[in-house]
Amino acid sequence: MRLRTSRSYQSKRTKDKTIIFDFDGVLADSFEMFYSLISQSMYFAGLTISRAQYRNLFLGNIHEEFIKFLKTEEKYKLFTDFRSNNYDRHYARTKLFDEVVNFLQQIKESYFIAIASSGKRDAIVKLLQKNRIKHYFDLICATDKMTKENMLMDIISKSGNNSRETIMVTDTVGDLVVAKKIGIKTVAVTWGFHSAKTLKSAKPDYIARNFKILRKQLEII
């Protein structure tokens, strides 16, 4: 799958560090929105899911975990059809965390900035455009057609920086495991889908409890 750039750059290596952000739970305050969508989709398939169960799906590959949770192809199809048909309506309620715009304004000239998300690209782009910050991102990779590992490797290739010069910022254990597997430094943020205690189990390189701390950590990595 070919990734599209969000802003042009003259050469592949214009900035010596790449930051890859997971989007939902890191930049977008979307847990409750997604839980509402997923719980309704599960109900349509004849199942229920608690907030804790939903969070636990992100301990591994989220798509594989959904398949395991739903157990049968019939229930999985009912679930995915309902989720797809109602995704945009739910996501329209999503907002960025309050500090995001100012944070990105402070770092945008210093790093090659990318998004790696399993969410819908069009919905993410629409939210970024609404907040007038889409042009802050060099790459936006958002799809459920690629594994997170393949997304990260593709972004690394296009950024011109290697894995040692790349930082993954995420709020889930599943992402931390993938990033560490391919040698990317990791920062876990505690305001998203997983708690600080859960994130520590995956041994991230750094843990950020707010955007001010996150910015300082990015500067020293």
Automatic annotation (TrEMBL):
What SUPFAM superfamilies does the record tag this protein with?
A: HAD-like
List, alphabetically, the Gene3D superfamilies matched: HAD superfamily/HAD-like, Putative phosphatase, domain 2
Its Gene Ontology molecular function terms? phosphoglycolate phosphatase activity
Q: Name one GO cellular component term.
A: cytosol
Any single GO BP term: DNA repair
Identify the domain of life: Bacteria
Per the UniProt record, one Pfam family is HAD_2
Name the InterPro entries on file: HAD-like_hydrolase_sf, HAD-like_sf, HAD-SF_hydro_IA, HAD_2, HAD_sf, PGP-like_dom2
- Name of the protein in question: Phosphoglycolate phosphatase
Species of provenance: Candidatus Yanofskybacteria bacterium GW2011_GWD1_39_16
